[in-house]
Amino acid sequence: MTHSGFTLIEIIVTLTVAAILSVILVQFMGTSISRSVEPTLSLQEGMTLQGIFENMNADYKRLLLVDSTPLATFKSRVESGYYGTYTVSQSEYIEFDTSQSEVACTSSPSECRVLKVAISLGDHSLVELFTR
User: Fold this and answer.
1) Residue 130: closest CA among 115, 110, 108
2) Where are its TM segments located (predicted)?
3) How confident is the model over 85-118, as pLDDT tens digits?
């Protein structure tokens, strides 16, 4: 008598191997899929920060033409979040000493000519100098 088909042992072994491989695949793909959005979010944060600085530059150029104290007005706008959602890391008047090192401006704000602005969003940060 010839029997065709699989024995019960062969079916159990096949199902066990398939289950083990499925668990391995789910573990591997689960972390890959859940973390695949991180580069996209990072790029989005960086581009948002760049856009904020573009808006700052455009507004500062306009302030230079229409405001009697453009640097002071601009500084207050940066610190108040006028240009969007960001964290101000630094917004200080600076100058450069004789060795070209950056130092805090000790003159009155109306006499300081350079404003250093550093803002951050997420893991990204940008620094820019604004002068009059």
Assistant:
1) 115
2) 6-26
3) 999 999 999 999 899 999 999 888 888 899 999 9
